[in-house]
Design goal:
Layout (H helix, E strand, L loop, with lengths): L1 E9 L8 E6 L7 H11 L3 E9 L4 E7 L4 E2 L3 H15 L6 E6 L2 E8 L2 E5 L4 E6 L21 E5 L3 E6 L3 H5 L5 H11 L6 E8 L2 E10 L2 E5 L3 H14 L3 E8 L7 E10 L2 E8 L1 E10 L1
Parallel strand pairs: 2-3, 4-6, 11-12, 13-15
Antiparallel strand pairs: 1-2, 1-18, 3-4, 4-5, 6-7, 7-8, 8-17, 9-10, 10-11, 12-13, 13-14, 15-16, 16-17
Helix pairs in contact: 2-5
Length: about 290
């Protein structure tokens, strides 16, 4: 069986930046186990599998896998897969699309070279103390931005949002794997456990996402799902209207730019993130 696939860079201003993504078409007959094996083999942060296509309705269904597990929602796979569908697969090249993932249908819009997704309403979970981080990081109490709390937030996948005071604290960040794993398992409310550190520096937003996979500390080049959580956090605690660019991946030589456009009105969160996608390759996978 031959499976068509595309490789793209997502949230990338140019080729070989951003977060890599493999998009597999015609995957409706694949088992969950086979999708997981393929995702593990290609070993990108995520791979997507298109299980249903309805080009007449500008819609499709996908499943998202990291090398170790299936995701209910993830931003860069949704943005990148939508770009492939709208620009390479669907002949009418629609500007609006609907992509179904396990948490539901995600509205997609393309405006010029940016693809935007609309996130679900956020859940604000537990608040944590900065002293918790002394057990597994090199952060001191002076490294945290005391204007904001540390809080776990979910828009489908949950992240502990950690505000830092400056870019030096973000750049110098060092985490101890075993103690971090113990803390995440003890404190996170969901099965998806990850930390999303951010700071403002001279008006610019910078971030880093770190999690544990296969007992290894992993840093993501661009994390759309974490960005929707961060945008919700900033709308609630910083400003009810946000238009800015989130800089992620700079410290691992995969610069990523995640565009924020959000508004909070009468307890309703209008959360949109966008990004550019760069075409890298296409081919056939021998299943």
């Amino acid at each position: 069986m031959k499976l068509p696939f595309y490789i793209v860079d997502v949230f990338a201003e140019k080729k070989y930046d951003g977060n890599q993504l493999a998009v597999f078409l015609e995957a409706d007959t694949l088992s969950t186990e086979k999708m997981q094996e393929i995702a593990r083999e290609i070993n990108f942060a995520e791979s997507t599998f298109i299980t249903k296509m309805q080009p007449e309705n500008n819609s499709a269904s996908i499943r998202i896998f990291t090398p170790v597990s299936e995701m209910q929602f993830a931003g860069h796979p949704i943005i990148g897969t939508s770009w492939v569908l709208m620009n390479k697969i669907v002949e009418t090249h629609p500007r609006n699309f609907k992509l179904s993932v396990p948490i539901g249908e995600i509205p997609i819009q393309q405006s010029e070279d940016l693809v935007w997704l609309q996130a679900a309403q956020p859940e604000f979970l537990d608040v944590f103390s900065k002293e918790d981080f002394a057990s597994f990081s090199n952060l001191s109490s002076e490294d945290f931005d005391d204007e904001f709390s540390i809080q776990e937030v979910s828009t489908g996948s949950a992240f502990v949002v950690v505000p830092l005071k400056n870019i030096k604290a973000l750049e110098d960040l060092n985490l101890e794997l075993i103690k971090m794993k113990e803390w995440l398992q003890a404190h996170c409310k969901t099965n998806h456990r990850a930390l999303y550190f951010y700071c403002f520096d001279q008006g610019e937003l910078y971030s880093r996402m770190l999690c544990i996979e296969n007992n290894q500390l992993i840093e993501d080049a661009a994390t759309g799902s974490a960005s929707t959580c961060l945008q919700a956090f900033l709308l609630k605690y910083h400003s009810p209207e946000i238009k800015l660019i989130n800089h992620q991946g700079d410290f691992i030589d995969r610069p990523s730019r995640i565009y924020f456009d959000g508004k909070l009105s009468e307890d309703h969160f209008d959360i949109k993130i966008g990004g550019k996608t760069q075409f890298i390759a296409k081919g056939e996978w021998d299943v």
